[in-house]
Every structure is written in structure tokens, then in C-alpha cells.
Amino acid sequence: MTHLIALIDGSGYSQSVADLTRWVAERTNASVDLMHVLGRRGVGSERADLSGNLKLGARSALLKELSDLDEQKAKLDVKRGRLLLEDAKAGLEEAGLTTVGTKLRHGDLIESIAEFEGDADLIVVGKRGEAADFAKMHLGSNLERVVRAAKKPVLVASRAFKPIEKFLIAFDGGESAMKAVRHIAEGKLFTGLPCTLLCVGKPTEGMQKKLDDAADILRKSGYSVDAQFAKGEPEDVIKDRIEADNIDLLVMGAYGHSRIRSLIIGSTTTEMVRSCHVPVMMFR
């Protein structure tokens, strides 16, 4: 891993994103680009026509005032974005990172990521953005868009960062799960950390072989692996295991096997990101 993109939006998750980015960069000696995207806010809610039956002169004056307000807001948004990026950069540099850049973009978040994703190895993003409903535990809409569109792994920051000392891979034998296993085995990010390789479901002969093969790949790379099956609903079993074993980070595939689920984030993945209080690293 050599380069990270960290998405900073000014939400309550921005500090956790920065802390998690620092942790990854320190372990992998990666460079970092902090990105803030000034999106198309308010899309779908057109500004009300306040001119009504005003006379031409009054209507023109009102429209000019509204235009001036829009221009002022746009300038303030740019200024705020630059401040957010500079503050985050200063924090990472104070922590010892030496290669930290900033990117302030205008337009669509996904288009901005696609523009720079080719040079990145990982994208770090907060679980919820500024507009997410915390009371209802809604995921940020941008998170779902990022996971659907990104070609690189996505690391989702939890509300507050804590040192990561052990991790769990939710293993279902699918392509994305095996991609996660190979990525971990070939990289440096999790080196030295104990791994739980958990498969929820019936231990059939085929799944046992897939689990054993995945564990062998990790062990050959020096990992201490506890590979096991567990019965129950994946969402409940994985969450309970994370809490019981004090797991600090969850790794899983972002999609299930069905063709319908290929259109959206897999249901288990959505529930895990929504309910778990630890970072989640997702692979397509």
C-alpha cells in the first residue's frame, strides 16, 4: 500500500477518518491525499420562486440579491473546505506523517474519486456525513455511493478511533472475501495482528475447504489465524463476536452472491456498517 485518499467533509466523523488514515499510513508508509468535495447541495429541492407578482424592477432587484447570496455562500463553502483540509493536514503532519496533500474539488463526489482513484490503494471515509440522521442510525448516502462505485478497498471509520490490535474477517467463501484475504496476506497493514477468520453457516465440505485455504494463505504470510464456523444469522453472530472478543476492525466483502445484491450493498454488509462500533474494511 503506497497511497491513500481520505474523504474529509466536516462531519463528526472527520477526526476519526484522520486518525484512521494516520494509523494506515504509519503501518504502510503510505502517502495521503485529503479530499473535500463541494457537491451539488440541495439537488432536488429547487429554490422557491420568491418573485411572485412583483413588478419588473422589484423582481430584478430580488433576483440580483439572491444571486449575490448564492455567490457569497459559494465563496464561504470554498473557504470552509480549505480550512477543513488544512486543519486535517496539520494534524497528520504533527503526528509525524511527511507526505500529505490536499484536494478541494467541485462537483460530484464519485466523479472526483474516480479521477484520482487509479493512483490510490485505499479510500478512507466516515460512516455518516454531515446530513445523516444519527438518531435513526442511517448510513450516509455518499458512503453507499462510494462503496458501489469504488474499484479500490474502502475503509469506513467509526465514530471514534481507538488503536487496532486485532481484526476479524467475515468469510463467506465468495470472490470479494477471497480478495480481502489475498490483499491482507500480500500487504503490510495488518502485519503482526491476530486474525479471526469467521464463517457463519453450516460447515459443509466445500466451505470447510475454502475456509482452510483462506487460513493457509494468511498463515503462510505470518499471521496467527483462528479459523472457525458459527451458527446463526450473520448480522447477529458477527456483531456479537466483535463485542465479545473486543475486535477492533472488521474486514468483509461488500456484496453477496446474488445478482440482485450486486446492484446494492449486500444486506449483511449494510447491517454491519450500520450497527458495528468498529471500522469496517470492504472489498468488492
Overview features:
2 domains; Rossmann fold; 284 residues; 19% strand; ten-stranded mixed beta sheet; 10 strands; alpha/beta; single chain
How far apart, in Å, are the first and last alpha carbons? 17 Å
Name the CATH homologous superfamily of the largest domain.
Answer: HUPs
* CATH second-level architecture of the largest domain: 3-Layer(aba) Sandwich
Overall mean pLDDT: 84
Q: State the share of residues found in helices, binned by percent.
A: 40-55%
SSE ordering: EHEHEHEHEEHEHEHEHE
Which regions are unreliable across 5 or more consecutive residues at pLDDT < 50? 42-46, 130-138, 257-265
Number of strands: 10
Shape: elongated
Major β-sheet, in short? Answer: 10 strands, mixed
Describe the model.
- With 284 residues, this protein is α/β, with parallel strands linked by helices.
- The chain folds into two domains: 3-41 and 77-156, Rossmann fold, CATH 3.40.50.620; 164-251, Rossmann fold (3-Layer(aba) Sandwich), CATH 3.40.50.620.
- Helix content is 42%, strand content 19%.
- The chain has a ten-stranded mixed β-sheet with strand order 3-2-1-4-5-10-9-6-7-8, sandwiched between helices.
Short description:
By secondary structure, the protein is an alpha/beta fold.
SSE layout:
Blueprint: E1 3-7, H1 14-28, E2 31-38, H2 56-94, E3 100-106, H3 109-117, E4 122-126, H4 141-149, E5 154-157, E6 167-170, H5 175-186, E7 195-200, H6 205-220, E8 225-230, H7 234-244, E9 249-253, H8 267-275, E10 280-283
Parallel strand pairs: 1-2, 1-4, 2-3, 4-5, 6-7, 6-9, 7-8, 9-10
Antiparallel strand pairs: 5-10
